């Protein structure tokens, strides 16, 4: 299953290049390095949309984690759909990490290597054990901010940094990050605390991985949020001076 998702990730990467060549006139004029990052971001946007919608469905719309609908522990609940989603996500992170390391540091620095490494370890442990699935899905939903990050980069490369769309996207990124990576992680830790009697029953390595990795990801989210706020204030200041 992982191999098939890995192969499909590569196909999506290549498809991004073909679509961009047809839809964006400036794509052919980009340098080889920019084309690689362009395709990589298209690939990450595709992954983000799939996992965000699927995670939202599993967490809120399905009854998989409804505490009143099942008798088993919430940390032990899993399904075929969530297995497929984690396999898909693992394939993405593995292929993306390989590209980051191959072209290091063009596609991202050590913080991206750390983020992907921690994410992969948590997903793999949950996939193998079938435990802590609810917390993995919460973290995967935070990928919903990725399309805004990528659109910001695309607009910059396309010379649209002074456009209204760039400003609106910056505001959307700020609000999305605040909800999906700040408020959601506050709820994440509150949920862990209120269900700690169940969390303690996760197998030892999985338990310590959850306890260690989630705060690290939360700190990284706060750090990136600070950079987003600074960038948004700079963009709004420029827009104000234009008028």
* Shape estimate: globular
Query: What is the mean predicted local confidence, pLDDT?
Result: 92
Encode the helix/strand succession as letters: HHHHHHHHH
Q: Name the beta content range.
A: under 5%
Q: Structural class of the secondary structure composition? A: mainly alpha
Describe the overall structure.
The chain is mostly helical. It has helices at 2-23, 32-61, 80-102, 110-129, 133-141, 146-157, 164-194, 196-199, 204-242. Helix 2 packs antiparallel against helix 6.
Q: Strands, helices and their partners?
A:
Layout lengths: L1 H22 L8 H30 L18 H23 L7 H20 L3 H9 L4 H12 L6 H31 L1 H4 L4 H39 L1
Helix pairs in contact: 1-2, 1-3, 2-3, 2-5, 2-6, 3-4, 4-9, 5-7, 6-7, 7-9
Quick take:
This protein has nine helices and no strands.
Which keywords apply here?
9 helices; globular; 243 residues; mainly alpha
């Amino acid at each position: 299953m992982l191999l098939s998702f890995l192969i499909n990730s590569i196909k999506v990467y290549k498809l991004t290049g073909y679509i961009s060549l047809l839809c964006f006139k400036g794509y052919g004029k980009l340098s080889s390095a920019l084309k690689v990052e362009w395709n990589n971001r298209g690939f990450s946007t595709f992954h983000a949309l799939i996992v965000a919608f699927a995670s939202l469905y599993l967490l809120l719309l399905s009854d998989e984690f409804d505490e009143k609908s099942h008798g088993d522990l919430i940390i032990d609940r899993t399904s075929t759909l969530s297995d497929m989603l984690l396999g898909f996500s693992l394939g993405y992170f593995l292929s993306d990490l390989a590209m980051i390391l191959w072209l290091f540091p063009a596609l991202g620095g050590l913080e991206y290597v750390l983020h992907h490494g921690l994410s992969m370890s948590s997903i793999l442990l949950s996939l193998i054990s079938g435990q802590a699935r609810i917390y993995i899905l919460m973290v995967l939903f935070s990928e919903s901010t990725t399309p805004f990050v990528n659109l910001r980069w695309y607009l910059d490369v396309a010379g649209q940094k002074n456009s209204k769309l760039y400003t609106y996207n910056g505001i959307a990124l700020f609000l999305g990050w605040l909800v999906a990576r700040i408020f959601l992680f506050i709820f994440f830790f509150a949920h862990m605390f209120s269900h700690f009697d169940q969390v303690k029953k996760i197998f030892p390595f999985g338990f310590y991985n959850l306890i260690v990795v989630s705060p690290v990801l939360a700190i990284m989210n706060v750090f990136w949020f600070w950079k987003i706020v600074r960038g948004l204030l700079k963009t709004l200041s420029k827009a104000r001076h234009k008028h």
